[in-house]
Design a protein that fits this description.
single chain; 405 residues; mainly alpha; Growth Hormone, Chain: A; 81% helix; globular
């Protein structure tokens, strides 16, 4: 079964949000390549490229919770408009820095850290707003469309980033990202006005604690967080792509490596209709994460670019499979009045893993080698995912509440 696009036809505001964020995400993925590539070009140090992940981790941890809390207290559309404006200013800073004769590496780290802090308000607000724009019966279709938006941007963006860097330098890539923010801002502006949520007299921290208590009380939610973090911490190889590309063609090869996983993600998303017939969602997440680990091990042993690209595409398909079922579990178990806070916690789970994973990969590669870092990380990941399934049996057995035994 092909992807269900009915929500794009049925809901005007969802359509505006979808396409605006799709264009913006395309630009973000160009910068996703440009930032680590620039740091590697300036320093030739895998460890510093991996360190970008650690610098971004603290803002994710702090503002993932705080941003999610305010997404349940403030007007989500207005919060997105302010966030988009601030993010564009930070990209402008990266652009101006790239234009210097000697770009500042510390400034790159500072701007990237602040960017993640602002993103902590942006993503929960967008997730919570999306859930409010459509009927519950369309949650699965909306999740698949979100995955399609991600996969498309993650394929075209990095490949385009490689071309822009090769043709116009790093500053050209950042300038492109800056322009895409205009489209996202216009789309948000054209959406219908959203009512403000009910005012709350108590402290935001009380709301944050309520969200954390709810998340911890649900084994099926805990399972999605743990499996995702484990898979990414031990088997996320992205920090090593600039180093790998150096032997396979430079910036153009880097663009292909950054895009490869998204190719698999897109294929999985386009043929995601079958997921509606799978009801044991916890089991599906575990199996997908184990497959991700196996394919990453293959990347570690690849001696040619096309072999690495093939394994990365397979890994991306497995990761998307995991993401689709995790998204279904989240939508089935989280009420909308908690959606902003839980979106913040979800953001921490799916962003902290890659950030820590990049740091681990960069450190291990600097101590031993790139192939060792990738293959050993994948092996540890496979074992850790299986252990997680045994330790969280309720998550493994979770299935849709809409299905009778």
């Amino acid at each position: 079964m092909l992807i269900n696009i009915a929500p794009l036809k049925k809901y005007r505001d969802f359509r505006l949000l979808f396409f605006g964020q799709m264009i913006s995400f395309l630009g973000s993925m160009v910068s996703y390549v440009a930032i680590p590539y620039q740091v590697y070009e300036l320093t030739k140090d895998n460890f510093l490229v991996g360190l970008l992940g650690l610098v971004q981790l603290l803002p994710v941890l702090i503002f993932g919770i705080l941003g999610g809390t305010y997404a349940d207290r403030l007007n989500r559309r207005k919060l997105l408009l302010v966030s988009e404006f601030l993010l564009s200013l930070l990209i402008l800073g990266l652009t101006l820095n790239a234009w210097q004769d000697k770009p500042s590496v510390p400034l790159i780290f500072i701007l990237v850290a602040i960017f993640q802090g602002v993103l902590g308000f942006h993503r929960p607000a967008m997730d919570a707003l999306t859930q409010k724009l459509v009927d519950k019966s369309d949650y699965a279709a909306v999740g698949a469309l979100g995955s399609f938006r991600y996969a498309t941007g993650a394929i075209v963006g990095p490949a385009l980033g490689g071309v822009l860097i090769a043709s116009f330098g790093i500053k050209g890539a950042f300038l492109f990202d800056l322009v895409t923010f205009v489209a996202a801002y216009i789309a948000l502006y054209l959406m219908s006005s959203m009512p403000d949520p009910d005012k709350k007299e108590h402290s935001p921290w009380i709301d944050a604690k309520e969200g954390l208590r709810y998340a911890i009380s649900k084994p099926e939610l805990v399972g999605t967080y743990v499996v995702d973090i484990v898979a990414m911490v031990f088997a996320f190889p992205v920090a090593l792509f600039p180093s790998m590309a150096e032997n396979w063609g430079g910036a153009s090869a880097a663009g292909l490596l950054f895009s490869a996983m998204a190719v698999g993600s897109l294929v999985m998303t386009l043929f995601s209709g079958w997921t509606a017939k799978v009801f044991h969602h916890g089991r599906a997440v575990v199996i997908a994460a184990a497959l991700w680990a196996v394919f990453i091990i293959g990347v570690g042993y690849a001696s040619h670019l096309w072999v690495a690209l093939a394994f990365l595409a397979l890994a991306g398909a497995a990761d998307m499979m995991s993401g689709l079922f995790r998204g279904i579990i989240w939508n089935e178990t989280v009420p909308n009045d908690l959606r902003g806070r839980l979106s913040g916690i979800e953001m921490i789970s799916y962003m902290s893993g890659p950030l820590l994973g990049n740091a681990r990969a960069g450190w291990m590669a600097s101590k031993v080698s790139v192939p060792f870092s990738i293959s050993v990380g994948g092996t540890i990941c496979a074992v850790a995912v299986i252990i997680t399934a045994f330790c969280l049996p309720q998550f493994w057995r979770y299935k849709s509440p809409n299905v009778k035994d």
